[in-house]
Specification:
This protein has 163 residues and is mainly α. The protein has 7 helices and no strands.
Protein backbone atom coordinates (compact mmCIF):
# COMPACT_ATOMS: atom_id res chain seq x y z
CA UNK A 1 0.00 0.00 0.00
CA UNK A 2 2.80 2.44 0.85
CA UNK A 3 4.56 1.79 -2.47
CA UNK A 4 1.34 2.53 -4.37
CA UNK A 5 0.78 5.72 -2.38
CA UNK A 6 4.31 6.91 -3.12
CA UNK A 7 3.84 6.13 -6.81
CA UNK A 8 0.56 8.08 -6.84
CA UNK A 9 2.29 11.04 -5.17
CA UNK A 10 5.19 10.88 -7.63
CA UNK A 11 2.78 10.78 -10.56
CA UNK A 12 0.90 13.79 -9.22
CA UNK A 13 4.12 15.69 -8.56
CA UNK A 14 5.48 15.10 -12.06
CA UNK A 15 2.04 15.84 -13.53
CA UNK A 16 2.01 19.25 -11.85
CA UNK A 17 5.35 20.37 -13.30
CA UNK A 18 4.33 18.94 -16.68
CA UNK A 19 1.09 20.94 -16.59
CA UNK A 20 2.87 24.10 -15.42
CA UNK A 21 5.52 23.87 -18.14
CA UNK A 22 2.95 22.99 -20.80
CA UNK A 23 1.01 26.16 -19.98
CA UNK A 24 4.19 28.19 -20.45
CA UNK A 25 5.09 26.43 -23.71
CA UNK A 26 1.62 27.01 -25.14
CA UNK A 27 1.78 30.69 -24.19
CA UNK A 28 5.26 31.01 -25.70
CA UNK A 29 4.03 29.47 -28.95
CA UNK A 30 0.72 31.36 -29.13
CA UNK A 31 1.96 34.69 -27.74
CA UNK A 32 5.74 34.74 -28.24
CA UNK A 33 5.91 38.52 -28.14
CA UNK A 34 5.24 38.55 -24.39
CA UNK A 35 8.22 36.55 -23.13
CA UNK A 36 10.43 37.19 -26.14
CA UNK A 37 10.42 40.91 -25.37
CA UNK A 38 11.71 40.28 -21.84
CA UNK A 39 14.28 37.76 -23.08
CA UNK A 40 15.60 40.39 -25.52
CA UNK A 41 15.58 43.00 -22.75
CA UNK A 42 17.75 40.77 -20.54
CA UNK A 43 20.13 39.98 -23.40
CA UNK A 44 20.44 43.69 -24.31
CA UNK A 45 20.81 44.52 -20.60
CA UNK A 46 18.42 47.43 -21.19
CA UNK A 47 17.24 47.93 -17.63
CA UNK A 48 20.76 47.74 -16.23
CA UNK A 49 21.99 50.29 -18.78
CA UNK A 50 19.20 52.69 -17.75
CA UNK A 51 19.21 52.11 -14.00
CA UNK A 52 22.86 51.38 -13.28
CA UNK A 53 24.92 53.04 -16.03
CA UNK A 54 28.25 52.85 -14.15
CA UNK A 55 27.91 49.13 -13.45
CA UNK A 56 26.59 48.52 -16.96
CA UNK A 57 29.69 50.16 -18.44
CA UNK A 58 31.81 47.46 -16.79
CA UNK A 59 29.88 44.55 -18.34
CA UNK A 60 28.39 46.16 -21.46
CA UNK A 61 30.52 43.88 -23.66
CA UNK A 62 28.21 41.02 -22.65
CA UNK A 63 25.09 42.61 -24.15
CA UNK A 64 23.64 40.93 -27.23
CA UNK A 65 21.83 43.45 -29.39
CA UNK A 66 21.33 41.34 -32.50
CA UNK A 67 17.58 40.74 -32.92
CA UNK A 68 18.25 37.58 -34.91
CA UNK A 69 20.35 36.09 -32.09
CA UNK A 70 17.77 37.17 -29.50
CA UNK A 71 14.92 35.58 -31.47
CA UNK A 72 16.91 32.42 -32.15
CA UNK A 73 17.75 32.14 -28.45
CA UNK A 74 14.08 32.48 -27.54
CA UNK A 75 13.09 29.81 -30.08
CA UNK A 76 15.73 27.43 -28.72
CA UNK A 77 14.40 27.93 -25.20
CA UNK A 78 10.83 27.23 -26.35
CA UNK A 79 12.04 24.09 -28.16
CA UNK A 80 13.81 22.93 -24.98
CA UNK A 81 10.68 23.65 -22.92
CA UNK A 82 8.56 21.70 -25.41
CA UNK A 83 10.92 18.74 -25.29
CA UNK A 84 10.96 18.78 -21.49
CA UNK A 85 7.16 19.01 -21.35
CA UNK A 86 6.78 16.06 -23.71
CA UNK A 87 9.21 13.94 -21.69
CA UNK A 88 7.46 14.93 -18.46
CA UNK A 89 4.09 13.88 -19.92
CA UNK A 90 5.66 10.61 -21.13
CA UNK A 91 6.82 10.11 -17.54
CA UNK A 92 3.33 10.75 -16.22
CA UNK A 93 1.88 8.22 -18.69
CA UNK A 94 4.57 5.66 -17.81
CA UNK A 95 3.89 6.16 -14.09
CA UNK A 96 0.13 5.78 -14.67
CA UNK A 97 0.80 2.58 -16.60
CA UNK A 98 2.87 1.30 -13.67
CA UNK A 99 0.02 2.17 -11.31
CA UNK A 100 -2.36 0.23 -13.55
CA UNK A 101 -0.02 -2.76 -13.54
CA UNK A 102 0.69 -2.63 -17.28
CA UNK A 103 4.08 -0.97 -17.09
CA UNK A 104 7.29 -1.05 -15.14
CA UNK A 105 7.69 1.18 -12.10
CA UNK A 106 11.39 1.54 -12.89
CA UNK A 107 10.65 2.66 -16.45
CA UNK A 108 8.05 5.15 -15.26
CA UNK A 109 10.42 6.63 -12.69
CA UNK A 110 13.30 6.72 -15.17
CA UNK A 111 11.30 8.61 -17.81
CA UNK A 112 9.85 10.97 -15.20
CA UNK A 113 13.34 11.55 -13.76
CA UNK A 114 14.64 12.41 -17.22
CA UNK A 115 11.79 14.91 -17.66
CA UNK A 116 12.44 16.46 -14.25
CA UNK A 117 16.13 16.71 -15.15
CA UNK A 118 15.29 18.56 -18.37
CA UNK A 119 13.01 20.87 -16.36
CA UNK A 120 15.85 21.54 -13.91
CA UNK A 121 18.32 22.18 -16.74
CA UNK A 122 16.05 24.80 -18.32
CA UNK A 123 15.57 26.80 -15.13
CA UNK A 124 19.11 26.30 -13.87
CA UNK A 125 20.28 27.40 -17.31
CA UNK A 126 18.22 30.57 -17.00
CA UNK A 127 19.96 31.29 -13.70
CA UNK A 128 23.41 30.84 -15.22
CA UNK A 129 22.68 32.78 -18.42
CA UNK A 130 20.76 35.45 -16.51
CA UNK A 131 23.72 35.87 -14.19
CA UNK A 132 25.96 36.37 -17.22
CA UNK A 133 23.70 39.25 -18.27
CA UNK A 134 23.58 40.58 -14.66
CA UNK A 135 19.81 40.23 -14.58
CA UNK A 136 19.84 40.30 -10.82
CA UNK A 137 20.23 44.10 -11.14
CA UNK A 138 16.78 44.72 -12.62
CA UNK A 139 14.96 41.43 -13.19
CA UNK A 140 14.76 40.14 -9.63
CA UNK A 141 11.29 38.69 -10.18
CA UNK A 142 12.51 36.61 -13.09
CA UNK A 143 15.54 35.46 -11.16
CA UNK A 144 13.37 34.44 -8.22
CA UNK A 145 11.00 32.51 -10.50
CA UNK A 146 13.93 30.72 -12.14
CA UNK A 147 15.33 29.84 -8.73
CA UNK A 148 11.99 28.49 -7.51
CA UNK A 149 11.52 26.42 -10.69
CA UNK A 150 15.04 25.01 -10.33
CA UNK A 151 14.17 23.92 -6.80
CA UNK A 152 10.86 22.43 -7.96
CA UNK A 153 12.66 20.37 -10.59
CA UNK A 154 15.30 19.29 -8.08
CA UNK A 155 12.62 18.35 -5.56
CA UNK A 156 10.95 16.14 -8.15
CA UNK A 157 14.26 14.54 -9.03
CA UNK A 158 14.97 13.73 -5.37
CA UNK A 159 11.44 12.42 -4.83
CA UNK A 160 11.65 10.15 -7.87
CA UNK A 161 15.15 8.87 -7.08
CA UNK A 162 14.80 8.44 -3.32
CA UNK A 163 11.42 6.79 -3.01
Amino acid sequence: MLEQSILIAQTASVGLIAAWLTTGVVDNIRHPEINEAFTAQVMKMTRMKEGYPDEYAQVAHRAITSRSIQKLSFRLVVAAELMAALVLWAGVVALLMALAGVGSVETGKAVALLGATLFLLIWGGFLVVGNYFSYWFCHEGAQNTHYQMTLWGLGNMIFLAAA
